[in-house]
């Protein structure tokens, strides 16, 4: 869906049946029903932030916000935390010296709250973000933004309706790399864009998402060991099927389709989102296919340990991504054009900085493919463009907080985030169903047959 055609959320809910879409009742069963405006922030007002999800990613995000506030005249602070696991809730509460909640809805009712960090398992992202916006809160929403394409559509509509600020937490998108590459492409340094490529490889126990399990923890646990398993599943909102407590699913949720799409959502989002920033505009795909398998790590895993996708775009270029959790040799992050190539990350690690990006003109017989005009402007030799060396996590948080004050779009806004997540969701569907998937942008609908114009 193009920005000019985005629609009111209530209209969306009314027309779901007519379009054939299904919206998870997680979205229809949101806590809030009345839109309430958030506090108008002045330049010197301290921004109060709540954390939903106190695991590794959420704790890191909260620490970044707290550190930023401390380094910038107390411009922001963590004022509340929430987690369904008592131990994590208590630890985060003590770390930030704030009130902790087992139920995130109680956190949203805290009157001094301006924004929330949503760092729960993926299947809860959309509902928590929607509930927060209904309470007038801005949202720093961890990748991959949402778990389904219907949720992405709903989030785009809700941001438009409520005028809340939503920043998707793929922090690498605030690195200078992608914005320098975007300018180089806009300046004509590669000519017509043909193909973007990248990877996300790793080979470690944690890289397989086999995080440490606390054996005493669970729904029958006492004190620190208590986990509200039913709330975590979200079965009451049809976010995931009801099932008995499974420690592997709780502590290692990214291995299971009900809560995550594995490599596609956890890793490829960090590649697809910045590529959308590099391109002349963020874009939905028209066709996506994926392959791979469980080749090495065969115990207690539903998602593949090796995964590849290809996507085609209406403007005439393709995307090729590769990943394995059993080999850590990367493919350089590259965008190829007819007249030149940009190598953004020569080491292939999209979440790490580089000192420069390299533009390689396409040359034939010592002459630039782009002709005399290209040669006059750019020459025929490799060009290194310096990149600012900044902490991308800090820059991403700063951008979010700045946009909360100015009400401008953040670096990774909901529309760009949606265009990235649709590719991911289609790729996972392609892999699971063993067929090519096509995307109808106007109807926000996937099909296994080409979309008629």
Note the main sheet: 10 strands, mixed
- Output the number of helix runs: 15
- Amino- and carboxy-terminal Cα gap: 14 Å
Q: If you compute it from the alpha carbons, what radius of gyration comes out, rounded to the nearest whole angstrom?
A: 22 Å
Helix proportion range: 25-40%
Strand element count: 18
* Structure classification: alpha/beta
Q: Shape from CA axes?
A: globular
Strand content: 15-25%
Give the strand order of the largest sheet, numbering strands 1, 2, ... along the chain.
16-13-12-11-7-10-9-8-17-18
Average pLDDT, rounded to a whole number, is 92
Q: Outline the low-pLDDT stretches.
A: 1-34
How would the blueprint of this fold be written?
Layout: H1 9-19, H2 25-28, E1 47-52, H3 56-71, E2 76-82, H4 86-96, E3 99-101, H5 104-108, E4 115-118, H6 125-134, E5 138-142, H7 149-162, E6 166-169, H8 176-186, E7 193-199, H9 229-233, H10 247-251, H11 263-266, H12 269-278, E8 285-293, E9 306-313, E10 317-324, E11 333-337, E12 340-345, E13 356-361, E14 363-364, E15 367-368, H13 371-378, E16 383-386, H14 392-406, H15 414-433, E17 437-440, E18 445-447
Parallel strand pairs: 1-2, 1-4, 2-3, 4-5, 5-6, 7-10
Antiparallel strand pairs: 7-11, 8-9, 8-17, 9-10, 11-12, 12-13, 13-16, 14-15, 17-18
Helix pairs in contact: 3-14, 6-7, 7-15, 8-12, 12-15
């Amino acid at each position: 869906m193009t920005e000019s055609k985005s629609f009111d959320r209530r209209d969306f809910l009314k027309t779901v049946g007519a379009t054939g879409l299904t919206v998870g009742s997680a979205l229809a069963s949101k806590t809030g029903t009345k839109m309430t405006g958030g506090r108008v922030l002045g330049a010197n007002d301290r921004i109060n932030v709540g954390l939903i999800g106190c695991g590794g990613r959420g704790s890191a995000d909260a620490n970044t916000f707290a550190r930023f506030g401390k380094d910038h005249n107390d411009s922001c602070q963590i004022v509340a935390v929430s987690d369904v696991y008592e131990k994590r809730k208590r630890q985060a509460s003590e770390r930030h010296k704030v009130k902790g909640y087992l139920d995130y809805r109680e956190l949203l009712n805290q009157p001094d709250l301006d924004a929330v960090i949503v760092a729960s398992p993926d299947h809860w992202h959309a509902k928590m973000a929607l509930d927060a916006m209904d309470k007038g809160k801005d949202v720093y929403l961890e990748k991959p933004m949402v778990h389904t394409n219907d949720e992405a559509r709903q989030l785009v509509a809700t941001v438009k309706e409520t005028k809340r600020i939503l920043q998707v937490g793929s922090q690498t998108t605030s690195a200078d790399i992608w914005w320098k590459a975007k300018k180089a492409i806009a300046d004509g340094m590669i000519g017509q864009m043909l193909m973007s490529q990248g990877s996300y490889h790793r080979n470690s126990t944690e890289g397989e998402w086999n995080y440490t399990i606390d054996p005493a923890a669970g729904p029958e646990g006492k004190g620190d060991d208590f986990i509200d398993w039913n709330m975590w599943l979200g079965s009451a909102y049809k976010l995931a099927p009801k099932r008995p407590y499974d420690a592997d699913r709780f502590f290692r949720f990214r291995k299971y389709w009900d809560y995550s799409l594995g490599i596609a959502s956890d890793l490829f989002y960090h590649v697809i989102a910045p590529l959308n920033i590099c391109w002349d505009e963020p874009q939905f795909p028209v066709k996506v296919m994926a392959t791979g398998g469980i080749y090495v790590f065969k115990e207690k895993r539903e998602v593949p340990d090796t995964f590849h996708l290809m996507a085609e775009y209406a403007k005439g270029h393709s995307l090729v991504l590769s990943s394995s959790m059993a080999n850590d040799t990367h493919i350089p992050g590259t965008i190829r054009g007819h007249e030149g190539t940009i190598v953004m990350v020569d080491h292939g690690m999209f979440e790490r900085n580089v000192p420069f990006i390299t533009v390689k003109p396409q040359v034939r017989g010592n002459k630039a493919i782009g002709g005399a005009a290209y040669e006059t402007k750019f020459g025929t030799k490799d060009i290194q463009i310096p990149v600012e060396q900044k902490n991308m996590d800090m820059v991403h948080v700063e951008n979010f907080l700045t946009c909360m004050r100015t009400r401008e779009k953040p670096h990774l806004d909901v529309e760009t985030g949606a265009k990235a997540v649709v590719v991911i969701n289609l790729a996972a569907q392609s892999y699971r169903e063993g067929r090519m998937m096509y995307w109808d942008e106007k109807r926000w609908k996937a099909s296994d047959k080409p979309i008629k114009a």
